[in-house]
Amino acid sequence: EKKYDEGLAKSRQTFGDKLNSLLANFRTVDEDFFDDLEETLIESDVGFETAVKISDELRQEVKLKNAKTKQAVSEVIIQKLIELYEQEGADEDAKLHFATDGPTVFLFVGVNGVGKTTTIGKLAYQLKKTGKRVLLAAGDTFRAGAIEQLAEWGRRVEVPVVQKPARSDPASVVYDAVKRAKTEKFDVLLVDTAGRLQNKVNLMKELEKISRVITREIPTAPQEVLLALDATTGQNALTQAKQFKDVTPVSGIVLTKLDGTAKGGIVLAIRNELHLPVKLVGLGEQLDDLQNFDPEKFVAGLFG
Ligand code: GDP
């Protein structure tokens, strides 16, 4: 897959190439081999715990399959990585959930600069291409710039944006948007929010209020609370995720800027340490550079 191939070029140069060179120098599966493997995984930001878990599982698997040749060992590694990247609770979990009837609402959370607005723009574009009617809500009323930025995406992708002046109550923007989505029969409402982790209590209250307003109008919504994380921030992204999990029921992760990092291993850390499914990945700045997360394509992209 071209997008994954291009988007993971940087990760491939470190993670993939290191694994490949580890295998190229392969003589025998001994403890040194597993030590080197562990080190490679840690350097690729899969996280210490995850790296140890992977090499332990690989050790057993290699023994079980009696893999002795380079080819056999490399097959075990690739297969194991795909398995690890597959979401817990299988495929169902990794997909975005849409309402069967009435508007679907996705709430986007995440700190400034992680790529939240860009993701909303890209997703609006993609949903629109599949024939869905999309509405955006500028729920980050804290910064005038954020409202204008979402409005700009709305113009670019040609979908309407519900907005109010800066400093308006975000819940009132969302209320108007949900009402409009219902009366005008939009299929999907994408809600931007302010992710000010500086004040966790306020953030929690704000997100709770927004969710309440949505649920009162549409009992099954929001169908997703998507947390955007910047892959280039490595382990910091994990810390952010833990903090957001404390303030709101996150249903999935959007991992942005994977094209800008050599540490594609972060996906594994998110899966194994946070138990949250990665639902979407940002692989570049173009409109179609947002992809559903696909473990097989991802691992293929890593190994090139
Ligand atoms: P927000 O503050 O969270 O809404 O972040 P923005 O959507 O404004 O994005 C911040 C910057 O990251 C912008 O320059 C985007 O073009 C860039 N960006 C977002 N997603 C991606 C991605 O997947 N790949 C790359 N390379 N850049 C991205």
TrEMBL record:
Can you tell which superkingdom this protein's organism belongs to? Bacteria
Any idea where the SRP54-type proteins GTP-binding domain is?
277-290
Q: InterPro entries from the xrefs?
A: AAA+_ATPase, P-loop_NTPase, Signal_recog_particl_SRP54_hlx, SR_rcpt_FtsY, SRP/SRP_N, SRP54_GTPase_dom, SRP54_N_sf
Residues in the signal sequence: none
Any one GO MF term held by the record is:
signal recognition particle binding
Q: How is it placed in the membrane, per its record?
A: Peripheral membrane protein
- Catalysed reaction per UniProt? GTP + H2O = GDP + phosphate + H(+)
- Statement: the UniProt record of this protein carries the keyword Flavoprotein: no
Specify one Pfam family: SRP54
In its keyword annotation, does this UniProt entry include Nucleus?
no
Q: What GO cellular-component annotations does this UniProt entry give?
A: cytoplasm; plasma membrane
Q: Which NCBIfam families match?
A: ftsY
Family stated for the protein in its record: Belongs to the GTP-binding SRP family. FtsY subfamily.
Q: Could you describe the subunit structure of this protein?
A: Part of the signal recognition particle protein translocation system, which is composed of SRP and FtsY.
Entry protein name: Signal recognition particle receptor FtsY
Annotated source species: Liquorilactobacillus ghanensis DSM 18630
Gene name linked to the record: ftsY
